Amino acid sequence: MDKSEIKTKVEKVTAQVLKVDPKEITPTANFSFDLGADSMQSIELIAALEEEFNIQMDEQKAREVQTVEGAVEFIAGYLK
């Protein structure tokens, strides 16, 4: 799976979990500051991404990811 496919899936899951307009989701969008994720939604987002990509992420490291492009890079590392 290439980064373009990962990005598309991350954007889709982010829009669903955070209930935001997909147009608001840009590569540099910060999950908390730009997209309004609180701590509970962050946990839900990590779980949803794990399910979407069928991976098990290090939750502590995943919570340190702040942006959409950061999430794409982080997930790409798990898919290699």
Structural class: mainly alpha
Radius of gyration over all CA atoms, rounded: 11 Å
Unreliable sequence segments:
none
Mean pLDDT: 97
Largest sheet: none
**Alpha-carbon distance between the two ends:** 9 Å
Number of domains: 1
Q: Outline, from the CA principal axes?
A: globular
Question: Order of SSEs, N→C?
Answer: HHHH
CATH class reads Mainly Alpha
Structural commentary:
The structure is a single chain. This protein has one domain: Non-ribosomal Peptide Synthetase Peptidyl Carrier Protein, Chain A, CATH 1.10.1200.10. It is 61% helix and 0% strand. The chain contains four helices and no strands. The protein has helices spanning 3-18, 39-53, 59-64, 68-79. The longest helix has 16 residues, at 3-18.
